[in-house]
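Whiteboard transcription, Tuesday session. T.W. wrote the structure tokens on the left side:
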């Protein structure tokens, strides 16, 4: 299986967990269907880095959601406690989704870097074409 096919397979599997998987975005950039100018790309990366930094700062506090909160010993309290833990850790849970996003962010950054390169290359090609047309006229 080619590297591109492996990336596509991984991206499809991951996309079931989060919206647009980093692998899909990176593949789009590799294929040239995702391009972004330098300024916008840097702003996107800066924003992603802010989210990454924020998650890292708060990660130990967030992981406390993996445990059922301490409540009374009534049946209702035990059910509520388990339900709260479940909504944080099940397939659609907050922690599950944050972990998936956290794992994808570096790939988003790679995809954006490739997209910036695509934009530069297209811009250079367009400039060459325009100069060539200008000299032909």
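and on the right, the sequence the group agreed on:
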């Amino acid at each position: 299986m080619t590297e591109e096919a492996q990336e596509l397979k991984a991206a499809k599997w991951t996309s079931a967990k989060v919206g647009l998987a980093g692998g899909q975005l990176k593949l789009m950039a590799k294929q040239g269907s995702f391009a972004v100018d330098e300024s916008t790309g840097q702003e996107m990366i800066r924003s992603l880095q802010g989210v990454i930094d924020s998650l890292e700062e708060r990660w130990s506090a967030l992981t406390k959601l993996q445990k059922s909160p301490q409540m009374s010993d009534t049946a209702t309290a035990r059910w509520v406690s388990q339900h709260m833990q479940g909504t944080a850790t099940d397939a659609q849970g907050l922690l599950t989704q944050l972990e998936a996003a956290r794992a994808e962010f570096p790939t988003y950054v790679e995809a954006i870097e490739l997209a910036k390169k695509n934009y530069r290359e297209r811009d250079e090609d367009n400039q060459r074409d325009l100069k060539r047309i200008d000299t032909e006229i």
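Someone added at the bottom: The helical segments are 3-15, 22-30, 38-62, 75-89, 94-136.
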